[in-house]
Amino acid sequence: MKDGNMKEYALYYSRLGLAVFPVKPKSKQPLTEHGLKDASKEPAQIESWWNRWPTANIGIATGAVSGGLVVIDLDVDKDKGIDGRVTLREWEAEHGKLPDNTWLAITGRGGYHYFYHDTSTVRNRAGIYEGIDIRGDGGYIVAPPSIHPNGNTYEWEQDPMLYPLAEANGAVFDFLVGPASREPEPILFELPEQIPDGQRTTAMVKLVCSQQAKGLSDEAIRAAVRAENEAKCVPPLTDQELEKEVFPALTRYQKGTAPYTATYNHKTRSFQPIIKKGPVNLVSMDTVEEKEPEWLVTDYIPRGQITVLAGDGGSGKTTIWCSIAAAVSSGGPCFLNQDNPFAKDCLPGGVLFFSSEDSAEYTLKGRLRRSGAKLENVLSLDLADERFPEIKFNAPLLEELIKEYRPELVIFDPLQSYVPPDIQMGQRNAMRACLNPLIGLGEKYETTFIIIVHTNKQVGLWGRKRIADSADIWDIARSVLIAGEANDGLRYISQEKSNYGPQAQTVLFRLDSGKVEFEGYTDKKDKDYVTAATAATYQAPAREDAKTFILDYLKDGEKETADLDGMMKAQGVSGETLKRAKAELKKAGTITYFSRGFKPKVHYCKLTNPIPSENVTE
C-alpha cells in the first residue's frame, strides 16, 4: 500500500474484519451523518466514501461491529503532566505484563493503541486509569496513516501484516476491570418491599448470587429465597418455578469467603463467613488404576468427553455431525476412519441432538437418512417445544434426558444457544463453570458430547484463534476439530487439539451428493489452508488488474508470450500473479496460446479467435 493512500488502508482494514468510516482530515470528527454507526466493511461503501473524501482520516469502530475489537488507548498530554505509558508500566509492575505480541499503533500525540480481540461485551470507559481509556462497544479509534490535528501521523509500530491480533487473556481482563478500591466495599443487596410479576425470577436469582458471595450453604440459601419469595413476590413463584429458574444459579458460582455486609429489613450487620475445615484425603499414585483412553471415533472423538467441531458458515458442520451421528446410531464405521485399518467401528448407541438452526423436518432427517443413520436411535427435542429454551449446558432438564435415554452421543448446535443467559462467554472462567457439568455427566453416564462452534470471521487466523467467543471452550475440550474449504469443492477436517494422543491426520472430503464423501488424508493443517486462502485473498486485486492489462495489451492482435511477460514485469506484476492471471484467462476461454515455427519455435498469445492453420501447432 502507498503511504498516505487512505482508501487503500481503509479497504485493507475492512479485509481484516474491521468496520471503518471516514473522519475529517486532521480531525477526530466523523464525516458521515451518523458517525461510527455508519461504520462498514463493505468495499463498495468504503470506495464511495474515500472517492468523495480522498484525504479523510480513517476511523475504526471498536467492539462487536469489528468482531470483538478492544483497544487500550494510552494518552500523552505533556501540558497536563499525563502519560498513560507510565501508568501502564506501573500497573504491569504490580499485576504482570499485558500481551505485547499484538497490533500496536503510535497516536498523533505519541501515545499508544494496544489492540486485542475479546468477544465479550466491553464498553467504552474514559479515564479508567490516569491517561488511559478503553475503546469497546460504542467507541472508535483513529487509525494509521491518519493525520492528527497537530500534524503528526498515526503510525503502526506493530503492523497487522506482521503481527497477530492477540486474544485478550487474564491480564487484559484484569486491566479492563479497572483499579480496585483500596478499602474493599461491602457486598450490599437489598430486595424491594414488593416484587411484581415480570421481575420475580431476576430478583430471586440475584438474591441467590448475593448469598453465594457470602459463603452461605445451599440449604440456607434455599430457605432464605423461599422466605423472601413468600414475603415479597406478587404472586410468589411456585416451587416448580424456583427449582427450574432460580435454584440452578447455585451451581454456577463459587461461594465467597470474604467479609460482607447484609441488609435485611433496613438493618445492616457485618459478618465473617465461617470456613468449614475437615480432613483432606490425598491419593497416592501407586493406588491409581492406569487406564487407556476410550474412543467413540478412534483418534478423533474421545468417549465420555467434550469434542468441539468448529468451522465457518458453509463449511459443512451440520452434514459432518449428521454423518458422525449416523455412524454411532448404526454402529458402523465413521468416515473419519474410513482408510484406517486399525480403527474400530463406532459403539452402537442412541444419539440425542439439539439444533436451534436447522429443522428436523426440512433439513436434518434427510441428511441423517442419506448418511445411513438408524433413525429410530436418533432422538431430539423439537425446536417448537415449549421446554426447548430450558436446554442449557448446566440445566437439570439436560441431565434428566440423559439419565432417562442414556445416549452414547449428545450434540449441541450451535454453542451459543445452550449457554445460560447470565453467562458472558468472553469473561474469564465463565464458560468453564458453564461447561463443567458436561464433564460430570460424561463420567456419570459415559456420554460423549460434540459442541458445534462458529469460527472467528477475522482473516488470517487459524487453530486456537479461530475458536470464537472464549478461550475456555478450547481449554475444556479434549479434542478440537476444525472444518474448512480447501479448493474446487474439496473440504477438510483438521484436528487442532488432542489430549489423548498425537493429532490425527487431516481428513479430506466432499459434500457434492448431500452427504460426506471421504477423499483421503493429508498432513496439512488448518494453518496451511487458512494461509493459502489469505494469500489468495490479498493477491486477488492485483490478479484482476493483471488480467485487465493482458486483455488490453492483446486487443490489437497476437503478441509473443515473451513480450507479454516482459511488459507485465515492467508494470511491477509479480511472476506468481502473472501466472495465475494467465491461467484464469485461459481456463475461461478468453485467451489462447499457440506457437509458430520449429527451430526456433516462437510462442504466442492472443484473444480467443480462429487461429491461422499455416505453421501453427497448438
From TrEMBL:
<feature type="domain" description="DNA primase/polymerase bifunctional N-terminal">
    <location>
        <begin position="10"/>
        <end position="172"/>
    </location>
</feature>
<dbReference type="Pfam" id="PF13481">
    <property type="entry name" value="AAA_25"/>
</dbReference>
<dbReference type="Pfam" id="PF09250">
    <property type="entry name" value="Prim-Pol"/>
</dbReference>
<dbReference type="InterPro" id="IPR015330">
    <property type="entry name" value="DNA_primase/pol_bifunc_N"/>
</dbReference>
<protein>
    <submittedName>
        <fullName>AAA family ATPase</fullName>
    </submittedName>
</protein>
<dbReference type="InterPro" id="IPR027417">
    <property type="entry name" value="P-loop_NTPase"/>
</dbReference>
